[in-house]
Automatic annotation (TrEMBL):
It comes from the Bacteria. PANTHER family: CARBOXYPEPTIDASE 1, METAL-DEPENDENT CARBOXYPEPTIDASE. It comes from Candidatus Flavonifractor merdigallinarum. Its cofactor is Zn(2+). InterPro entries: M3B_PepF_2, OligoPept_F_C, Pept_M3A_M3B_dom, Peptidase_M32_Taq. Belongs to the peptidase M3 family. This is M3 family oligoendopeptidase. GO terms for biological process: proteolysis. One of its GO terms (molecular function) is metal ion binding. Residues 196-575 form the Peptidase M3A/M3B catalytic domain.
Length: 592
């Protein structure tokens, strides 16, 4: 692990872009896609009516393409994420985009054919692949109703390589290499953002000001990227008959709009308690005009805990393994088998993520580990994604994809396990510091995520009528921050450029990747409450819920754990557990 300099090992996929296996898989995928297109063309020419047997054959072909394509795409994507300037990765990604686009029209045509097919119980019994993909088929039928004519689908898919997701690539390139001076040294945007947790208030402020300067230097290019992506999505939502981007997201998420409305209704009711926390924090830090943005994540007291990679391994193996031995074993594998790329470096993506390699029954995690408890909690979060992946890796390939809302549940559950243990163990000033840190984390997934949702919704609406220049984007962001965080932020020190920092806005295929963080955090809070009440007997229900997330709607999967998310009641209950922490914090700091 140390000899590998804390970098992940991707050799389970390929040893590099010059690996003969990589080239061979590209050729295999090209062949399979060509055969699939040929089969669809023959069916079209013959006027063949789609029946159960033909559908079973086509799904088997799609399954095989998915297996090979997933490895190629993930290797290429992860290679680029740790080195934005990797020309081989950029070139390979462009080739894959065109390749995936070449089959989009044929897949869309098959989905339209499926809309006229009624499968019987005899069909499912005669074709095991149809039985295994019963839910998948139902979902594809729903998406297929929104498909365009084949030439349009093919054109759109092929244009992804020169438009569409290429705008996301531009944003990634600009943010990876943008830099600004701080204390006489050039820093990347990722490095500057990392100082938000620093113990030195002067450094936090200086880094924030440098971050704004750095963001402004690339605002033009990123602005065009955001406008182009949102116009693309608006166009697709209209053309496909969804009406708007949020309605399209709900269908893609396998989630009902009433569930999202119930979530935000409960959040809005709880916001005043978070505002009280922000007001108290500003007072404790000596701010009279409200809490400035650069102090949102300031620590009220310092935890003296600092972790090496080995110490993080030992702590997480113990804590997470205490909940589930299988989870502990996965954590150990992740560290020992170099699944994790730990440290920041120029050209590497900021933040953290996990990619499940279900074909290999492994995962890979990117983080920017700094040795703090925060860094350990981030590792726990991403290991939650890996654990989720391990519980669905034995599903058939096309049944291994969970949607956005449930994607953040296992990760937040892990965070809860680690932070609650840390708070319980601590005392005195350290206990207060950790309690405030936990509240701060919840404030991020409640207030900040709500502000991001409000921002994205407004951008989608305004983009229908014209281009949004950087100044307007900054205005919308500040308006959203004021509404979500309340009156106790310093109005002269908001973060107008958060739209540059968050990659979640920059996807043509996945919009509103913000509310899932709130959904996941509060769902995890509610699940943890069940675990506290039921003990070890709850663990298998939790596993059953995670397994169900790829083969059920959001509402049906959560029902496996005995939870109804369609009304505000469950969300309000979870939020009460959070606001109870705020009440404790307010009581502990009342005389300070």
């Amino acid at each position: 692990m140390e000899a590998n300099e804390g970098r992940w090992d991707l050799s389970a996929l390929y040893s590099g872009f010059d690996d003969p296996a990589f080239a061979a898989d590209i050729r295999r995928l090209e062949t399979m896609m060509g055969e699939y297109r040929g089969q669809v063309r023959r069916l079209e020419e013959q006027g063949t009516v789609l029946d159960a047997g033909v559908l079973a054959d086509l799904l088997a072909r799609e399954e095989a393409m998915w297996v090979v394509g997933a490895d190629l795409h993930k290797f290429t994507e992860m290679s680029r994420e740790v080195n934005a300037g990797d020309s081989q990765a950029v070139s390979a990604m462009e080739r894959l985009k065109k390749l995936f686009g070449s089959v989009a029209g044929a897949v869309s045509l098959v989905r339209r054919w499926m809309s006229g097919l009624t499968l019987t119980e005899e069909d499912y019994a005669a074709h095991p692949i149809l039985r295994d993909y019963r839910f998948y088929i139902h979902q594809e039928l729903e998406l297929g109703r929104h498909g365009l004519e084949r030439p349009a689908e093919e054109l759109l898919a092929q244009m992804e390589g020169c438009a569409g997701s290429t705008w996301s690539d531009l944003r990634g390139y600009l943010t990876a290499f943008a830099h600004a001076p701080l204390n006489g040294t050039e820093h990347t945007l990722t490095q500057l953002r990392g100082y938000i947790h620093d113990s030195d208030p002067a450094l936090r402020k200086a880094a924030f000001e440098a971050e704004l300067q750095c963001s402004k230097s690339i605002e033009g290019g990123v602005c065009f990227a955001l406008n182009s992506i949102k116009e693309h999505v608006n166009l697709m939502a209209r053309q496909r008959g969804y009406g708007d981007a949020l309605s399209m997201t709900m269908v893609q998420s396998r989630m009902r709009r009433e569930t999202l409305d119930a979530l935000w209704s409960a959040v809005e009711s709880a916001l005043p308690k978070f505002h009280a926390y922000i007001e108290r924090k500003a007072k404790l830090l000596g701010h009279t005009a409200g809490l400035p943005w650069y102090d949102l994540c300031a620590r009220l007291g310092e935890s003296e805990q600092h972790f090496t990679i080995q110490e993080a391994h030992d702590l997480l193996t113990s804590l997470l393994g205490g909940f589930s031995p299988e989870l502990g074993e996965l954590v150990d594998r992740a560290f020992q088998e170099n699944w994790i790329d730990f440290y920041p470096r120029p050209g590497k993506s900021g933040g953290a993520f996990c990619r499940n390699l279900s074909n290999q029954k492994q995962s890979r995690i990117l983080t920017n580990f700094n040795g703090t408890l925060d860094g350990v909690v981030t590792l726990a979060h991403e290991l939650g994604h890996a654990y989720h992946g391990s519980l669905i890796e034995d599903h058939r390939p096309l049944n291994r994809t969970y949607t956005m809302p449930v994607a953040e549940t296992a990760s937040n559950f892990n965070e809860t396990l680690v932070m609650n243990a840390a708070i319980e163990k601590a005392s005195g000033a350290e206990k207060l510091a950790l309690l405030e840190q936990r509240i701060q984390d919840y404030t991020q997934v409640i207030c900040d995520i709500y502000s991001r949702f409000l921002f994205e919704r407004q951008v989608f609406e305004e983009r229908q009528n014209g281009f949004l220049f950087p100044q307007r984007l900054c205005e919308i962001m500040c308006e959203a921050q004021k509404r979500a965080y309340g009156p106790f932020l310093d109005p002269q020190c908001l973060h107008p450029y958060m739209w540059i920092n968050k990659v979640h806005y920059y996807s043509t295929s996945l919009s509103y990747y913000n509310f899932p963080y709130t959904f996941g955090a509060l769902l995890a809070t509610g699940l943890y409450a069940r675990y506290q009440k039921e003990g070890a007997g709850f663990v298998e229900r939790y596993h059953a819920f995670l397994r169900a997330t790829t083969v059920s709607t959001v509402e049906d999967a959560v029902a496996v754990a005995g939870i109804d998310v369609t009304t505000p009641a469950f969300w309000a209950q979870s939020l009460r557990a959070v606001t109870a922490l705020i009440d404790t914090f307010l009581a502990m700091t009342d005389n300070r």
